[in-house]
Amino acid sequence: MPTCPNGHQSVADDWCEVCGHRMTGVSAPTGAVPPPPAPPSYPGGTAEATMQAELCPQCRTPREAQAPFCEECAYNFLTGTASPYVTPPQPHGFQSAPPPPPQPTPPHTFDYHGSRPSRINRPAEPLTPQHTSPGLDGDGDWMLPPPAPAPDNPYAYDPGPPAAAPAPAGWIAVIAPDRDYFRSMMNRSGPEAAGLNLPAYSPEQQCRLTGPQVTIGRRRHSTGESPDIDLSRPPEDPGVSHQHAVLVEQPDGSWAVVDQDSTNGTTINGSEDPIQPYVPVPLHDGDRVHVGAWTTITVRRG
After folding, report:
1. Taking every pair of C-alpha atoms in the chain, what is the biggest distance, in angstroms?
2. How many other CB atoms are there within 10 angstroms of residue 225's CB atom?
3. Using one digit for the tens of pLDDT, what is the confidence trace for 178-235?
4. Which residues lie across from 22 on neighbouring strands?
5. Which residues lie across from 69 on neighbouring strands?
6. What pLDDT shows up at residue 130?
7. How many Cβ atoms sit within 10 Å of the Cβ of residue 209?
8. What is the rounded CA–CA span in Å between residue 95 and residue 263?
9. From CA 105, how far away is CA 100, in angstroms rounded?
10. Whole-angstrom Cα distance, residue 266 to residue 268?
11. Cα(279)–Cα(276) distance, integer angstroms
């Protein structure tokens, strides 16, 4: 009985029936055709399905409508460069905005109000009785007469109904592309911003500010979360982060802006230096808040 190179005895003389090894001295039959290779596999289905949707090589998210950047990780399809999360944002250079990492919630502050003096333990103010006054009772205690009603007392002061407090003046935010800010941003940006163009036409938008806060950013398509001022609407500003900044109402009715550690930062009134993240900056009537590549938000007392 033939024996294979591994020491197994097999009835067949071409292949071992135990381990499948070719028997010693047996060659492949003349004209034998090797088995065809396995067909290539495609992630997610067939080749036709793969050609229909281009996937981001970094996070495997489908590319949306030939967008230059990935919606989730900001991968640059035009240059083929990835956007690592560990790279800190450059305040003076333009970058596409990746989704921000979870940020710690700022500590809540409480307004301190001084307590009023207690009326329970206050010492009574002594009254000096006059023996000639008819306001003394039999024990010599001071007796005060009750106040007379207004109709019976012509000299009594009638304040009338309380006057209604005047309604506080509201604030509005005017959102529009800013050509001067766009030129300043392009001068500070790197080669990644070379393909950006200022929208030829974009109507001015207005948003009434109602407390306690108004969020600024871009809609996240994966979760459907939308900020109060959504800059993902056409023409979309690609330099705005999903959670870019917040307008916060102040106790006196005015407003302040707080940057949420955005990728490209937030500037005010044409300044090139971005404001510090998570620090409220008070705003006045007519102040301009610059975000993204070309968007300016002007706050006005309405």
Report:
1. 147
2. 14
3. 999 998 888 887 777 778 888 887 888 999 998 899 999 998 888 888 999 999 888 8
4. 15
5. 76
6. 47
7. 20
8. 7
9. 14
10. 7
11. 6
Alpha carbon distance 56, 72 (integer Å): 9
Residues 51-78 pLDDT 10s: 566 888 888 888 887 777 787 888 888 8
Return d(Cα 178, Cα 181) in angstroms, integer: 5
How far apart, in whole angstroms, are the C-alpha atoms of residue 299 and residue 56?
A: 38
pLDDT over 90, % of the chain: 27
Amino acid at 86: V
Task: Decide if pLDDT at 100 tops 80.
Answer: no
Of 189, 211, 204, 195, whose CA–CA distance to 296 is shortest?
Answer: 204
Distance linking the first and last C-alpha atoms of the chain: 103
Question: Cα(218)–Cα(232) distance, rounded to whole angstroms?
Answer: 5
CA pair distance 186, 239, nearest whole angstrom: 12
Please check whether residue 97 is in contact with residue 89, taking contact to mean a CB–CB distance below 8 angstroms: no
* pTM score: 0.46
Kindly write down the DSSP assignment for every residue of the chain, as one continuous string.
--B-TTS-B-S-SSB-TTT-PBPTT-PPPTT--PPPPPPPPBTTB-HHHHHHSPBPTTT-PBP-TT-SB-TTT--BTTTTB---TTSPP-TTS----PPPPP-PPPPPP----PPPPPSSSPPPPP----TTSTTB-TTS-B-PPPPPPTTT-TTS----SPPPPPPPPPEEEEEEE-HHHHHHHHHH--GGGGG----S----EEEEE-SSEEEEE--BTTTTB--SEETTSSSP-TTS-TT-EEEEE-TTS-EEEEE-S-SS--EETT-SSPPPTT--EEE-TT-EEEETTTEEEEEEE-
